[in-house]
Amino acid sequence: ESLARRREHNQVQEALARNLNYAMSQEELRSIQQDTRITRSRLLPQLNASLTGQAMDDDLAGQGGDRSISGSLGLSQTIYAESSFADYEVAKRSESAKAANTDATRLDIIQQAAQAYLNVLVTQTQLEIQKENLKVTRANLDRARLRYEVGSADRSDVFRFKSQLGANRQEVS
Asked: For the whole model, what pTM was predicted?
């Protein structure tokens, strides 16, 4: 039983790996997640830095050239920006919806792959049953011929099993 489960699991994993709709859905989800991170970053503290340098040529300045460097560092935090918070909330909900959609796609693929695999197993089992029925009918035909030859049965039994053998052959084909 565990071998059958492993086979089914492998079939399902292969179906997921090869399904383009699922791959596209995963890529869209990753894109939406990135958008959510960008939208959230607008609500986080912002650090700004700048550095400016200036140098004057000695020939132009006369005596000793001027040199100066100035820099600044700033930190800002958004305390309240309704539109930024709303954008972030929309992005989170959009991400949740896409994640649910991706999961639904995944589950649909799993169900379809598992159903297809089970259908193959059922068909194989039915074929084995039909083959076994064919063997049993052949054995019964041989017995009916022997009984007819020794006189314990009439010819109708032989004809009945010949007819049954033809029907079984059709079912196996």
From this structure: 0.62
